[in-house]
Amino acid sequence: MISAPLRHALFPQVTIWSWVLTLCAVGYTQDAFDGRVEQAMSKDSLDVMTQMWHALPEAEVGGIALAGGASDASEIPGSMQRLSSKTLRQMSYADPIRTLHALAGVNLVAEDGFGLRPNIGMRGSGTERSSRITLMEDGVLMAPAPYAAPSAYYFPTMARMEGVEVRKGGSQIAFGPQTAGGALNLVSSAIPEAEVAGRVRLETGSFRNQQMHALVGGRDGQWGYSLEFMQLGSDGFKSLDTGEDTGFEKTDVVAKLEWTSTSGKHTVRMKGAQSGESSRETYLGLAEQDFASNPFRRYAASAKDLMITDHAHVVVGHEFNPTTRWSMTTEGYQTWFGRNWYKLDRVVDSTGAKLPLGDILTDPSMTEALGWLQGASTPSGVGLDVKANNRQYGARGVQHRGRWTFGGDQQHRLTYGLRAHEDFMDRFQWRDRYAMVDGQMALVAAGDSGTAGNRIESARALAGYMRAAFHVGAWAFTPGVRHERMALSRQDFGEDLERLGEGTQRTNNLDVWLPGLGVHVDLVPNLWTAFAGVHRGFVPPGSSPDTEPEFSNHLEVGTRWSSRMLSSQVTLFHSEHQNLLGANLTASGGDGSGDLFNGGASRAQGVEVEAVGDVLELTGASAFFADDQHHFPVRVSYTYTQAVFTEAFESDFEPWGVVDEGDALPYLAPHQFSVAASWEAPRWSYNLNLRGMSAMRTTAGQGDLDPSESTDAMAILDAAVRWKSSDHVEWFAGVTNVFNDVYVVARRPYGLRPGMPRALRAGASMTF
């Protein structure tokens, strides 16, 4: 834990910051940048884009909260996608991996089967701990320390979200600091519009999966409020050798308060959220032969593995519209996140040699050590080290955005944004020594706090962007530029466990400019459009002055077709990355130092295809239903990604190793697809969702895939049925992984990891 003096040193001038948060009542937020979600869905200025993508509201894709001040799709310099609240309710997944699979261009690697710590990337930029995308909730940075330590060991609870938005290409320059892949924004539940309203959702299922979600709120005159509670839990689908469960419990509480002036020009919003998690998750997978025998086994040596987290987040802000041509929003935010992931880290033999877990699971000569993991009693002098990965994170800042409209009939727009931000990560870790005694982990010696990591990473940043939209006939041009100025620092106290000295310090200062340009043209008004964009991407390099920042050049070209019956989008993308950054994370097969390092250059290119339409409309079958209340929307997405290293180099990072030019990047599926179909009737709906991807390399290489160094190809079918017994009550039942497919989703950090087996689910939702 961080002492009070250290907290003051990391976040000085607390009194001043308290005043800043209070004064943010002069300007809010983006509350996902453009107002309340429900209002935005009905009357947002991006209705053109919304209609373009959702001939049916049931299959809505588009962009609202990340619109960044645009008035229509022509002013969005890049790819934009959105999953609406109805789409999320139809899918009703708590796992973000399953949810995001519906979107083209989003690279996904599963880990625990529940999506507690998803690995998300975009357009071949890398997926490790979602550290190479900009992750937000309601437009606010949500990684625990997005500049100093962007790996997202905290991920907002997907089951309570009302919308999901993705921005790729040149449009993401408004949403840094990571601009090499894309921006992901999760939109939380809006305040109800009625005087008093609410909803309750209950679900139960296989493996004692439980979910309870309740929200109550309303509006009275100038005031609005909501209070939300969510609880998730499961006993887990893996079988621990000791007989204990392998599940999790997670709880979220979110409160919102809003005030609008009588003139309507001022809106003040406040949001507070707190969540906690206890999950019995491990980095220890299975050896090949054990996976073949029982893919859902957990070795006895992982019995003590446990993640405990606590998260708190507050936002205070204000929206001000002084004229019809000028609007501005400002918000202040502060986040605290504490975690201790207590998990098996290594084996130490009787000679004191440290045996990496990955080697034990793959080296046939280490069968004795594998036996210890499986529960065989350890000889005298042999130890199983369990590491307490104890860390504290903090982030806070103030961000402001404005929009000015000018011109005559074809109005032009100028949008700008500023953000002052600081964050930190404090490692204070230790290892405990265990022995295996008759299949049970027995504590031998407790470690001293700080002996396995005793340092602070911190960052201060000032960022700004400016983007314009100029209309000339059927053409729209959207030039923009982003500027990031940051200081990334490390203070390593080493063996000074009391932190009485200064330790060793290092700082890396950066000042970067990131330009972009988008072009949009109406080929056939209100039917067929084309767009193109180019921008410079950036990934911060960490606190080491010897590590270079990663820069990248991105090009995309696309076209959109929109008719009443069918909407589609096809996008080609090409990216060149220089000084490619890798992160030495245990989660990705490293030793867990967290250091960033350069790995040569790479190229990613591919195609994204998305289409949505109503089969009844397309075939003319809708004429058989006079009431016009039957629909059969089908939504398809497909992504092809080719990502290769364009320089040869050597790396101690296990998934890269010795890299030759032309080697494919690991953990990027070349093919990924999703097909969702729904039969919608007045009271009933039937939903099918097929998602799949090709096998992925787990180490850099080229040529035919080696089965021992790759994941499995997968195509998983989910099915659900819903019935509305009244206007306020809906019942549902479903099954995920209908055919109970068994497949390898990853071989990292240590050993093979399975996808979730077939699971039944049922429940009800009630509104009032």
How would you explain this protein's 3D organization?
The protein is mostly beta strands and 768 residues long. The protein contains ten helices and 40 strands. Residues 1-10 and 12-67 have low confidence and may be disordered.
Integer average pLDDT: 88
CATH topology: Maltoporin, Chain A
| Low-pLDDT runs | 1-10, 12-67
Number of helices: 10
Q: Hey, roughly how much beta strand do the residues contain?
A: over 45%
Instruction: Based on Cα principal axes, name the global outline.
Output: globular
Distance between the first and last residues' Cα: 43 Å
Name of the CATH homologous superfamily? TonB-dependent receptor, beta-barrel domain
Count of structural domains: 1
Radius of gyration: 26 Å
Give the helix/strand class. mainly beta
Largest sheet descriptor: 22 strands, antiparallel, barrel
The CATH architecture designation is Beta Barrel
Q: In which range does the helix fraction lie?
A: under 10%
The counted number of beta strands is 40
Level-1 CATH class name: Mainly Beta
